[in-house]
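Obj: model holo form, ligand = adenosine-5'-diphosphate.
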Amino acid sequence: MGLEGLLALFGLGARKEPPAPPKGARPADPRPGSSERQPTKEEKAAEKVRLKVRAQRTKNRVDIWKRFEPLHNSISGTMSSFYKAREKMTDKIVGLKVLDPKKCAPIEGRYKGLGKPPEGEIGEQILGPNIVKTLDWGVSTEGGGFVVEEFIEGALLHALISKREAFSPAQRLDLVRQAAGALECVHRAGFVHRDVCPRNFILAPDGRLVLFDFGLTVPDKPVFLQPGNRIGTPNYMAPEVVRRRQADKRIDIFSLGVTAYEICTLTLPWPRGASGRAALAHDTLAPDDIREHWPEIPPALAGAIMAAIAADPDKRPPSCSDFLSRFAKVTLD
Ligand SMILES: Nc1ncnc2c1ncn2[C@@H]1O[C@H](COP(=O)(O)OP(=O)(O)O)[C@@H](O)[C@H]1O
Ligand SMILES: [Mg+2]
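Output (holo structure tokens):
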């Protein structure tokens, strides 16, 4: 989560914990964007193993500075410090994300008693060519969580967009497809990312676009997406999050749409804002038509992106594969 995310969290007065469901309440109705269903026997067994591993890893604290040598000063995130590091035993270069327990507490506290998996355990379950590989995770002797990831050399998508050097039309199409492919993996694994934005994608030198940062990711279940969890990065935040309505994975489709719009045009569909207030325009002001910024955009691509940023979740593509299928035939050189 970036600074903007925190502004959204505190600046707009989000509740600390979701309201408890009334006693005896039936689970919320499955919604078009939700994958609420009974787990299979295999899924139940896998969950049992995960719980066991979680308990072990929480108990067996790791002295991370005995195991890793930092190769540069940390990059400070909002709730964590990130290091390129060398694992002393193996000489392997990794990315080490060290969470600040004090800063994470208000967010994790919202899900008390709901069995939310820690960030590292979530990352381990999300696999794909455009997803950062989670290698290990645990709790350090200092008491905070840590995640070991593959270290991705490259530039943040956010930094490339900020430079305002346009991508070629073919590269725009490729990056939008890769971003959607990444998000599809998150949803297929049963999670909602909740912070899809160019700050959480790295473009590797080989052209691979990689999604990372599962710090706000939750299981795709209504209880984790209840009204009140106003969290994310405001310029990319779906109206149902801003307005504190029940959310589902379509909040990610909205953020993907804004990210895709920015990849294609280097600008946002709504006026940019550093605070949560910017997001209030997402259902009160019509977005600029993407064709105003890129008149030659293939109509199918324009249609998919404009649909993804619809204020009404029912008008968005219901899934990443649906989003991708809308411009599957488009080619650009
Ligand atoms: N696997 C990685 N490879 C290279 N750099 C990374 C990696 N993961 C994170 N970073 C860097 O660390 C920063 C913070 O990481 P992130 O996971 O986004 O933390 P936060 O939850 O605080 O936003 C990123 O903006 C990026 O510059
Ligand atoms: Mg981040």
